[in-house]
Amino acid sequence: MSRKKITTAIAAAALIALTGCGANASANSAASGDDFPKKGKSIDLIVAFSSGGAVDTAARLVQPVLEKELGTNVEVINKPGAGGQIGYTQLTSAKPDGYTIGATGSPSVVVSPLDPARGAKYTRASFQPLGRQVIDPAVIAVQPDSPYKTLKELLDAAKAQPKSLTASTTGLQTGEHFALAQIQETTGAEFAPVHFSEGASQATTAFLGKHVNVLVANVSDVTDLTKQNKARVLGIMTTERSPSLPDVPTFKESGYDVEAGTVRGYSAPAGLPDAVAKKLEAALQKAIEDPEVVKKMNALGLQTSYLSGKDYETFWAGQEEDFKKVLPLVQKK
């Protein structure tokens, strides 16, 4: 081979090698998520309950801040049903590329995969927690004209005639269902649960229509109802009174050792590239701790309680162990 041909062959080989390196570098960058999010590609934020409830409201409050931080559209998509299971199934079935995230709330997201009867296609390991937003204590409320003026009067009636009073939940094995089980175990008062699997707005509508006697909900669900004199809250299931309901005694003040509530945060399908996870976690922290978001959450009775993705995952694992112990109380007989 002539010297000129050899030189040309070496140059061509070098060009191919450089081109290949460039392509590999580009592919590696895309795989790692360094270019996330791509311009013009929106992110879906799945809410496993219907619009109008506390989960949906919180998601829509963080939405604009997430859009600003990530530089792309974030679309809140409601997928209600089966006490959150439909939405959680869609979330964990999505590709772990950062373009699908979801609001996750316990007990529902923690408990549904623990009960074989639920047939959940996901486990705790199917989720990658990105950050906790709020702890929302449970409450028990009656109609403003209810004959029960105090928590003791209501619980005494439920003890004297078990299952004579209906009480709402947002689905089987949700926070409200667990709260009713805890009340029964601690006080002996047994209500007849009525499950509204599409979420708090459906349960509240039923209560306002007087289709259930008792509304078991969270502080955020009843703050406006009390202001509008549409509900009388008899007790809050936490150790301290809520700033949003300062006149409502805790269960402990009334002589009952019952604590219950819902913990809410955000997660992605497990397996996110590290760079994508870091960007989403940073954006969520900014959104959750944004002063205007916190202010609006407080007005709704939602007290911000941020945890990082790693700490939220640890918290979630602890909850799983706790709920395993009381699961028999809320399983179908």
Q: What is the general shape?
A: globular
Percentage beta strand: 15-25%
Mean pLDDT over the residues: 89
Ends distance: 86 Å
Second rung of CATH, namely the architecture of the largest domain: 3-Layer(aba) Sandwich
Most strands sheet = 8 strands, mixed
Structural class: alpha/beta
Output the CATH homologous superfamily of the largest domain.
Answer: Bordetella uptake gene, domain 1
Radius of gyration equals 25 Å
| CATH domain fold name of the largest domain | D-Maltodextrin-Binding Protein, domain 2
Low-confidence segments, given as residue ranges, are: 2-30
Number of domains: 2
Count the strands? Answer: 10
Individual helix count: 11
The level 1 CATH classification of the largest domain is Alpha Beta
What portion of residues is helical?
A: 40-55%
Report the order of strands and helices: HEHEHEHEHEHEHEHEEHHEH
Provide an overview of this structure.
Helix content is 43%, strand content 20%. The protein is of the alpha/beta class and 333 residues long. The chain folds into two domains: 43-135 and 263-330, Bordetella uptake gene, domain 1 (D-Maltodextrin-Binding Protein, domain 2, 3-Layer(aba) Sandwich), CATH 3.40.190.150; 137-236, 3-Layer(aba) Sandwich (D-Maltodextrin-Binding Protein, domain 2). Strands 1, 2, 3, 4, 7, 8, 9 and 10 form an eight-stranded mixed beta sheet that branches. Helix 2 crosses helix 9. The radius of gyration is 25 Å and the shape is globular. The termini are far apart.
